[in-house]
Amino acid sequence: MKWMKYIFPAFLIFMLLSFSGCAKPEDTPTPLNSDTAYRLAWQYLLSEAEEHYHVFNITDAKITRFEPVAYQQATQGNIHVYALEYALFATQDYGWIPGGDGLGSTYLFMAEQGEDVRLLAAAGSKKVYDNGGYSGMIKALLQDNSSADYAKQSVLRAEDQQTEINDAIHAAEAFFLDKDCLTVNIWYDWNTSLDFWERSPDVLPEQKGNTIILCADLYFWSEHTTNLFHNSILILTRENEEAPWTIKTYGF
User: Fold this and answer.
1) What is the DSSP annotation of 62-124?
2) Which residues contact 201 (CB under 8 A, 6 or more apart)?
3) Quick check: 47 and 64 in contact, CB under 8 A?
């Protein structure tokens, strides 16, 4: 049976990781803030979706498994390892297809120092096994001072925009705090902003100086459904240069 050639290697790697002695946490960890961990996972997931977009026309994504599997204390901070499994929706021709390398979970290695949490690396099961399991992988990442940032970065027209953009991003983040929403990415892109001004002038205020257009990846959930707003548009306005930014509308 052809499918066995894919199932058996995946099962073998899973068993070797599970019984390697590296699979168990050294100590009982203090769990990471769930929003922080999920945000890093979604940032990685969306970067993968966008990388394969032109091949499969990816239109949606979902996490099917996300849980802590190992923990290790280190001088550089507490290291948390999460198993991530996800699926990408590739139009009606393909439907939902599993993400990753096809050999099991993708593992996210996160370093926690105080309130700061950063992603060290995302690695497939085979790579983790080849490096000696979770502990061996952690050792290699710390020795190399590895870091992986999948967050989307702002593209500015001029450096003097930075303060205004940061204030607007903080206002947008605060707006969604009391919503059933995870702000995966919020960023500013000059080209996207200019394009939106030209395409949709009817939804924008007349005074451009007190309006900012941001981009966002937002993940909403409710009791019955979840929705991913990918590359969504946020429109923020303020009364004058001294006034705070507020969200006028979003979801385009």
Assistant:
1) EEEEEEEEEEEEETTEEEEEEEEEEEEE-HHHH-EEE-SSSSS-EEEEEEEETTEEEEEEEEE
2) none
3) no
Calpha distance 40→63 (Å, rounded): 12
Select from 208, 159, 167, 216 the least CA-distant residue to 192: 216
Listed residue (227, 229, 17, 215) closest to 132, CA to CA: 17
Q: What is the largest CA-CA distance in the chain?
A: 69
Residue type, 38: Y
**E strands within 153-225?**
181-187, 211-221
- Asked if residues 205 and 196 have their Cβ atoms less than 8 Å apart, the reply is no
Show Cβ contacts of residue 148 under 8 Å, excluding neighbours closer than 6 positions: 44, 119, 120, 121, 122
Give per-residue pLDDT as tens, 22-59. Answer: 444 445 556 688 899 999 999 999 998 888 777 778 88
Helix (H, G, I), strand (E, B) or coil at 146: coil
- By three-state DSSP, how is residue 161 classified? helix
- Give the global pTM: 0.83
Task: Give the type of residue at 46.
Answer: L
Chain Cα centroid distance, residue 29 = 22
What is the average pLDDT score of the chain? 84
Distance CA 102, CA 9 (A): 10
Phi first, then psi, for residue 238 (nearest 5°) are: -150, 155
Edge-to-edge strand ranges of the sheet holding 226-237: 181-187, 211-221, 226-237, 246-250
Return the amino acid letter for 27: D
